[in-house]
Amino acid sequence: MEVVGAMLELATLRPEDVVADLGCGDGRLVIEAVRRGAARGLCVDIDRDLIAKARDNALSAGVADRIAFINEDLFTVDLRGVTVVTLFLSPHLNRELRAKLLRELAPGARVVSHWHDMGDWRPHRTLRLRPGGRERPVYLWIIPSSPAPARAPAPPRASPEAR
Fold first, then answer.
1. For the purposes of burial, counting CB atoms within 10 Å of the CB of 25, is it exposed (0-12), middle (13-18) or buried (19 or more)?
2. What's the CA gap between 159 and 163, in Å, rounded?
3. How far apart are CA 81 and CA 99, in angstroms?
4. Which helix (H) or strand (E) holds 124?
5. What is the set of domains in the chain, with CATH numbers?
6. pTM of the model
7. What is the pLDDT of residues 31-76, one digit of tens each?
8. Is the pLDDT assigned to residue 128 strictly greater than 70?
9. Residue 147 has what pLDDT?
10. Which residues neighbour 35 within 8 Å (Cβ) at sequence distance 6 or greater?
């Protein structure tokens, strides 16, 4: 729960936020986000049993009416309207998600990942937690208002014949 708290603090939750956890597991992150005042939550997991567990946990916490539970692949779920995305996936999946996040999230949306970065995406902020002595990094990215400019292509090299 220390990591969950740190992730939500990094996200700087607002009353109007819609928080999606991609690969939600038991739903604890979204449940806590809604408890802390987020408007709504979205639990997404490909595992039907985990979605059922997340729903049960949200019912027990009294917040199930403000959370949608979606048994779907995280690459196919529609993220338009989501303002905060939380992740605890893998380096590979995080990198694969980048294009989807840029395409579907509005500028200013926040993406928070536990443990895994986004490759060459530079985080806006990083926390390094040490529960039990083991370092657990938590990263924050903010979706830009326009894509970063592409690097200019390198000038063509002269062929050996032209030298």
1. middle
2. 7
3. 16
4. none
5. 2-134 (3.40.50.150)
6. 0.87
7. 999 999 999 999 999 999 999 999 999 999 999 999 999 999 999 9
8. yes
9. 56
10. 61, 63
The Cα–Cα gap between 162 and 155 comes to 15
Structure tokens at 88: 């605890």
Instruction: Provide the token pair at 106.
Output: 């509005």
How far CA 139 is from CA of 3, 87, 154, in Å, comes to 11, 10, 32
* DSSP assignment string, 18-81: EEEEET-TTSHHHHHHHHTT-SEEEEEES-HHHHHHHHHHHHHHT-GGGEEEEES-TTTS--TT
Fill in the amino acid letter for 93.
L
Cα distance between residue 114 and residue 139, in whole Å:
7
Query: Which residue(s) pair with 128 in the sheet?
Result: 137
